[in-house]
Automatic annotation (TrEMBL):
Transmembrane segments: none annotated. Pfam families: P-II. This is P-II family nitrogen regulator. It comes from the Bacteria. PROSITE patterns: PII_GLNB_DOM (PS51343). One of its GO terms (molecular function) is enzyme regulator activity. InterPro entries: N-reg_PII, N-reg_PII-like_a/b, N-reg_PII/ATP_PRibTrfase_C. GO terms for biological process: regulation of nitrogen utilization.
Amino acid sequence: MFEIKAYIRPALLDRVIDALGQMGGHHGIAVVPVQEYGHAADDGDGLVRAEMIKLEVNAEADRVDAIVELILSDARSWEGHVGDGIVTVSELRSARKIEDGKEID
């Protein structure tokens, strides 16, 4: 199983969630509001704060590429600007349900 994290613009959240819901093949989606800090793209002088949304999606290996491509497509602003976000993929060593301790396949 893999964990996909995506930091996206809040204005595009509904579009991405709707697309992921239609796609299926994942074990739920966590949505967390975050504040990102980074250097300005033009001169790198000072820090810029941006409101972002972090999505966390757990998926089987055969679904990861399709989910990442969907996020890249639906979370990109109409003009494709710096600051549209980032997607990362990590392999999960294990995932277990709190209710019964069973491993999630």
